[in-house]
Design brief:
The chain contains six helices and six strands, in the order αββααββαββαα. It has 181 residues and is α+β, with helices and mostly antiparallel strands. Helix 1 (5-18) runs parallel beside helix 4 and helix 4 (117-125) runs antiparallel to helix 6. Mean pLDDT is 90; it is low at 65-69.
Length: 181
Amino acid sequence: MHATICDIITDLVQNSIEAGATQIELEVSTGPEQIEIRVNDNGKGMDAATLRKAIEPFYSEAGKHDHRRVGLGLPLLIQTAEAAGGKAEITSQPGHGTQIRFTMDARNWDTPPLGNVAHTVLGLMTFGNTYNLILTRKTPTDTYTISRAELAEALGNLEEAGTLALAKEFLESQEEHLQHS
């Protein structure tokens, strides 16, 4: 099991980056009854046979990990979502990317805590490679959207300590605003 929903998000976005996505859209919607997460990317995608294998425990694409052939991310996502009264849906097409949507009952005892969205997204925005990560964060009363490209344009290099501190402060302020609206 994942410790937090943000751990699941990290795994999914990292998969998108590793699949060569240049555009990754992350939507995190939280409410008193349901949590819904969507990750859409334009990475290399998977054919139906590979997708079937990817949701089986212990499958990992050849060459993805140097020292192991175990991939538990998608099977654990499915198990966690179902245990939390929700479901996970994964669609993918070679050359067009992958779309993942999962829900969890926010009131269910087995639903992991959300975790720190601001810190998670900031960490994801500092990975290498050329990609744009767009976060849309929603609650029943408010929404904000921010992208890696916008942050880099406004603040500069996201790998510098001063820039990271400013980006962290901004993302934390957006999350705090959501909690108080």
